[in-house]
Each structure stands twice: as structure tokens, then as C-alpha cells.
Amino acid sequence: MVTMPSAVATSKENGRTIERKARLRLWIRLLRTSRFIEGVIRERLKRQFNATLPRFDVMAALYRQPDGMLMSEIARFLIVSNGNITGIVDRLVAESFVVRSRRNGDRRTSFITLTRRGRAAFAAMAAANERWIDELLSGISLRDAEQLSAKLKSFRSDWEGEA
């Protein structure tokens, strides 16, 4: 004897499928939007400041920590490997945007600090970045921006402890 699924069970399965597809569409839209904005920012940083987005990110991390950071702290903050940070820091040192020092004489740990020149360069990049983001997201109202930001923040808190 073949049993047919009940209308209630089928309705629940269809509801889950609809929810799953809606979430997948949301993910794709978030990803496309993020990639588009990131591409514009990368191009503008390169054109106007001869800088890369990873370089901007390293300088931003250091700007938030005026007393400096260990290389490993920068890598952890940016969720990349120490090796990824080393080349960027080497170039920033060569351009006098950061200084590298040893922590308590330990040759294995490098402590990185923005120089005055680096702070000024980053401040100019950050101001431009803020204008660019405002321009790119100008179609979003303040209310919508605050609501979406709050929703994404609560979403993050739901899953960030699971990794």
C-alpha cells in the first residue's frame, strides 16, 4: 500500500523549500553587492592613493590601535595569515607609513605602529572611503540602513560562537 503525503506535510515541505530558496537568493544578493562595492573601492584606492584594499585594512587596524599591534594581532584581526601581513608591512615600512619594533627585545615578535605620515595618509584614505561608501549606498534610507545593520549584527551574534 502506497501512502500519499498529507497536505499538511507537503505544505510544510514547500514552506521550507521557499524559505531555503529565499535565503539562498539573499546570500547571492549580499555577495554580489559586497563584491561590486569592494571592486569599486579597490579601483578607487589604487587610482587615487596607489593603495590596495589589504594595505588599507592593515592601516585601518593600526589606526584604531594608536599604541600599535603585534603582527599576529593584525593577522588575527583581519582573519589572514601572518605571511599575508608581512609583505604589506614591509612595503609600509619602506614608505615610512609604519615602524616595526621588537617587543621587549624578542626578535621573533614584531610590533607595528603607524607613523605620523602613515596616520595622515590613512586619514585621507578613510575620508575618501567614507564618501565612496556613502555614494554607493545613497539609495538606502537612514532607517533602512540602521535596520539592515542591526539585523546583520544580530545574525552575526547568532553564529559567531559556532566556528
How many β-strand stretches? 3
The profile of the biggest β sheet is:
3 strands, antiparallel
- Tell me the quaternary state: single chain
CATH fold call:
Arc Repressor Mutant, subunit A
Structural class: mainly alpha
CATH superfamily: Winged helix-like DNA-binding domain superfamily/Winged helix DNA-binding domain
Tell me briefly what this model is.
Helices cover 71% and strands 10% of the residues. The chain has 163 residues and is mainly α.
Structure overview:
- This protein has 163 residues and is mainly alpha-helical.
- The protein has one domain: Winged helix-like DNA-binding domain superfamily/Winged helix DNA-binding domain (Arc Repressor Mutant, subunit A, Orthogonal Bundle), CATH 1.10.10.10.
- Helix 1 crosses helix 5, helix 2 crosses helix 5 and helix 3 crosses helix 4.
- The N and C termini lie far apart (46 Å).
Write the layout of secondary structure elements.
Layout: H1 7-49, H2 53-64, E1 69-70, H3 71-78, H4 82-94, E2 98-103, E3 106-114, H5 116-136, H6 142-159
Antiparallel strand pairs: 1-3, 2-3
Helix pairs in contact: 1-5, 2-5, 3-4
